[in-house]
Amino acid sequence: MVHIQYSNCYTNGKELMEKRVVIFIDVDNTLLNNDHIKDEIKKSLIRVLGNKEANHFWQHHEEFREYKKLVDFPNIIHEYCAEKHKNTCDLTLSRIFENIEFSHALYPKAIEVLKYLKTLGKVVIFTEGDSIYQRRKIEQSGLASFVDGITLYEHKLEHVGELTKKYEGYKIVIIEDKSDTLLKIKEQFPAIFAIEVCQGHYATIDHKEHSKLDMTVDSISDLMNFNDKRLNILSL
Ligand SMILES: [Mg+2]
After folding, report:
1. What is the pLDDT of residues 12-27, one digit of tens each?
2. Ligand 1 center to residue 16 CA distance, Å?
3. What SS3 class is residue 195?
4. Domain check: are 81 and 110 in the same one?
5. Ligand 1 geometric centre to CA of 199 (Å)
6. Same domain membership, residue 213 and residue 180
């Protein structure tokens, strides 16, 4: 196995010669700085609710996430407000989420990378979350207009199998910031080319198993280096 080192990024040198390529790309902390968005939400909640109640809201958030394994802000708001018994609660908190400018949170060169990846194959958003807030995030950020499709699930790992069937005969590439998600995918579907993007708070997780993935890059903009000869992994 040949490892080509540059910065913290590497590839195992696999040549993917297939004619058809489909690239599934994650949104949160891959194309969009979701840590920054969450910080903005935290500040707005403190402004509207005060420190104590904002903490209470995040308790609801954590509990919801724990039992549903999902971040679903519309439902979290609903649950929190049901407890508060205030008519205006839903409206006030929903407004915070409606006013987020997702386009300001795109990582540098995120759109350029999508345009470049489209020259290599089909590019499909592969994300998880609720169907209202997460979809709005994809559309309002502008990402939706630069991809060939959007796949949005509550738990995306459960859908990798059906996607591999749908794209039988294609070389499948998955780009994602969570290494544990990629490792699970690689374990079940070794033929998938897994690219880890070390951005956001998951990037601090112990990465000793990096070598099981096909490529690791420091930032999404590094994918522009795909046209470099040494990273000619997706050329047709
Ligand atoms: Mg992510």
Report:
1. 444 444 458 999 999 9
2. 25
3. strand
4. no
5. 9
6. yes
* pLDDT reading at 10 higher than 80: no
Q: Output the pLDDT for position 234.
A: 52
Q: How far is the CA of 64 from the centre of ligand 1 (A)?
A: 19
Are the beta carbons of 222 and 30 closer than 8 angstroms? no
What pLDDT is stored for residue 109 in this prediction? 95
Supply the range of the domain harboring residue 55. Answer: 34-102
Which class for 156: exposed (0-12), middle (13-18), buried (19 or more C-beta within 10 A)?
buried
Model confidence at 94: pLDDT above 80: yes
Cα 88 to ligand 1 centroid, rounded to whole Å = 32
Q: How far is the CA of 178 from the centre of ligand 1 (A)?
A: 6
- C-alpha–C-alpha distance, residues 104 and 127, integer Å: 19
Same domain membership, residue 28 and residue 38 = no
What does each C-alpha distance from 17 to 162, 171, 222, 234, 236 come to in angstroms?
A: 23, 9, 21, 7, 6
What CATH number did the domain enclosing 20 receive? 3.40.50.1000
Structure tokens at 116: 């470049």
Instruction: Give 194's strand partners.
Output: 174
- Secondary structure letter of residue 106 according to DSSP: B
How many domains does the chain fold into? 2
pLDDT for res 20? 87
C-alpha of residue 84 to centroid of ligand 1, in Å: 32
